[in-house]
Amino acid sequence: MRRITRIATVGVASAALALSVTACGGKSSSDTSDSKGDKTALAYDIGGRGDQSFNDAAYAGLVKAEKDLGVKGTEAEPSDGESDADKVQRLTTLARAGNNPVIGVGFAYAPAIKKVAPKFPKITFGIIDDASVTGKNIANLVFNEEQGSYLAGVAAAKVSKTKTVGFIGGVETPLIKKFQAGYEQGVKDTDPSVKVLSQYLTQPPNFDGFSKPDLGKAAAQGQLDKKADVVYAAAGLAGSGSIEATAKAGKWAIGVDSDQYSQKGLAAYKAHILTSVTKDVSGSVFDLIKSVKDGKPQSGEIRYGLDKDGVGLADSNPAFTKMTDVVAAVDKAKKAIVDGSVKVKTTP
User: What is the pLDDT of residues 46-58, one digit of tens each?
Assistant: First the structure.
């Protein structure tokens, strides 16, 4: 696998020259070829690989595709404070190198994919968490985050002893509001007496709330000081700071996107990661790569919901599975959502 390092934001032309391969030899990213699904690329979101969450879930899908399908993967990292023009250049470089599909990890790639995809009609472009940009060669990989978050709310309400729980959103965007809405509804439907403290780390266009652990740590500490004993963070890399603070306080943290109980980078805090709201980002990446490899590329909206385990609640922590009343409540809520008797809101 080849990995393209982070680059300084110094303009599109300079950025193109600055891209460099840091692992696994082979052709440079400036080579062009007609790809038939033998080469594929991930362009990471804010925080990059190693966030123990969203980007790492996408990476897991790429690793599986390399192992099971024999494709060669390339990873492209974001740069701090980059513009849409930088993303356009990154996607263009990956497409010209013959990667197919090229997958933008996160809604921030929507403007860039809108510009680049029409120029490469034979290449499939995937975008995770966005359905606003469409085209014959664009696959929109989207999730019902509010459904998984509802289950987290049920669990939080059941385990809270202080009747106060917290939600931390990385950046106040429509996507993260889905996490908030589902969580708050799950809490209130389970126990109306439980108070939910909700806050965001940053506001667009400042996306530090997805990348700076110290912000998540400080926010979690503030909620813990207000007697929250369960804290759920949907904040990418910043969420790891929230987990650290919550765990050190001896309270329950709820992870997001990946099963964060199983993330090596969070091993020191795993005993206090009650559960995680998972999104099958890895599966969506693998499925898209396989569709191209099979000559039947996915396009349009591909939605992953609770009904097909596209979202869910992890049960890796033995302490969680031993809470039979909590597990029963979560299972009951899942059934109600799947059969339609419970409608989960997408806005707070």
Answer: 888 988 888 999 9
